[in-house]
Amino acid sequence: MKINGISSNKYILVGAKADGDTVYQYGGVLTLSNSLADFAHKFGFEVEIINTLRSGFEHQSLLTRAKAGLTRVNDLVSFLRVDKPVGVIIFSGAGWSFYERIVMAFICRIFCVRCVFFIVDGWFLGVKKAYWLKRIWIGSLLKIPSKLAASGSNWRKSFLEFGIKDGRIITIHYWLPRLLKVATKPKVAMNRESISFIFVGWMIKEKGVHEILASLEILLNKYKFNFTFIGGGTLFEEVQQRISTLRWGSSVMAHGWMSPEQVDNELLSADVFVLPSYAEGFPLSLIEAMAKGLPAICTDVGGISDSLHDGVNGFLIAPRDIFALTKAMEFYLCNPDAVSEHSLKTLNIVRTNHDADNNCELLFNCFKDVR
Questions:
Q1: Which of 88, 142, 321, 364 is the most exposed place for a label (fewest CB within 10 A)?
Q2: pTM for the complete prediction?
Q3: Cβ atoms of residues 208 and 299 within 8 Å
């Protein structure tokens, strides 16, 4: 079987691979990798996975991480020596992960094997504010991979600013898990007292949890509504304590990590998704919420603005802006009919931008014309 001229053959994926103990909170790269592997299997492709699975908040010593990185690099060399693949797909984070993956891209170049480099950590975009010598250094490293995958227009713009030629950048939006169904009907909020907001993600400062708490303290003095936190992290106990101290128990719930099925049920019961992160590549939790028809309130970081359009299917706000977050949440409390209008547009966008087969096909087709 072929996809636009590419015959079934062997590929290498540097990404996450589930094990028997893997739980939901390992997040985005695992979801992307699983969907990509499923797609490859569907079309008869053989995919060797070099496993990068690691919780982003699991502490590891520098020595442990260095050994794991060297093992992955050695695995790549071994694969390339035995059987030359059509191409290599590399998912990369920021920091040390970026440098390890760039070494892998360089090895691909040595073996004359094409690779597509996909940076998934939104903190990488902060490099634009670094001192000039580091920007030049990063820009030179980004020219090593055959192609760079951009998860949105902000990513593409950043790569262009680093001096990458437009023809070497391809926009590929994050995709839904292939088995996740998109809702057929938009959300409908009966009245403002029935509005239910939801947060899904790591409960840490960088996800905007403190800003959410500050907004709740303002709004719960004026309106009756519900808010649900789903996730674990360093601020989980603080959130529970705030709920208890301020007697929010009837309105605010803080769950720990839940199974995908439980999260789906919570999203089905909610009306508006809230994620005021300081940085993101493109949060998979947002796509999953959009698939259920939820309008969203998110910060304008990473590739989010490609799928969340301010005032159309939700609101884009600046990081750390409590006033903007409060105002956006208050809009839905004062205009519950807007939930249905925004929800309908959300469903149209998620079908257009985040279909798994379309985006996986686009990624594999990168290997047709890489120079």
A1: 321
A2: 0.91
A3: yes
